[in-house]
Design a protein that fits this description.
Largest sheet: 2 strands, antiparallel
Helix content: 55-70%
Number of helices: 7
Strand order of the largest sheet: 1-2
Shape: elongated
Low-confidence stretches: none
Length: 158
């Protein structure tokens, strides 16, 4: 077994440096939700309620149906970001899944790439050893990041 803890620590360090950027991206993404139509399940089908997410939130109406929400978002107060993330989209997926796909996963991947580039330049010998340990070419930063698997624990922290 090889020790890659230093790389995990470096990815978390870069995440802390980039936290303001993540917050800004999340806020911009969330603003776009208010104009989205609100949907609910009716008899197994996803149907529009006739209001937008923003209108329902402004009226204090819940955006989420209990059966559709993700457990990690818990019971959210109506109109909160957590409530909006648990709301359904037209395709029956909740917005939290879309948030993960469109914002969180790409952000974490970019963060890992920045950390890897930093490691490659500042800890060249350790980087070479790490790349060898994961079976990748040290010049191919993206492949080393993929093989290292630092994104999964970093997504949880992000």
């Amino acid at each position: 077994m090889f020790d890659v803890d230093w790389m995990g620590m470096l990815t978390r360090e870069v995440l802390r440096e980039e936290l303001a950027s993540l917050v800004a991206e999340a806020c911009a993404w969330a603003v776009g939700l208010s104009d989205q139509p609100h949907y609910r399940r009716r008899s197994g089908s996803v149907v529009p309620t006739g209001l937008t997410i923003g209108e329902r939130a402004a009226n204090g109406q819940p955006l989420t149906e209990e059966a559709d929400g993700r457990l990690d978002l818990g019971d959210a107060r109506p109109g909160t970001f957590r409530d909006a993330l648990n709301a359904l989209g037209s395709d029956g997926r909740i917005h939290a899944d879309r948030f993960d796909d469109q914002l969180l996963h790409p952000f974490v991947h970019r963060t890992c790439l920045v950390a890897a580039e930093r490691a490659r330049k500042s800890r060249a010998d350790a980087w070479e050893e790490l790349a060898d340990d994961v079976g990748e070419d040290p010049a191919d930063v993206a492949d080393v990041v993929r093989a290292g698997g630092w994104d999964a624990p970093l997504r949880i922290e992000a």
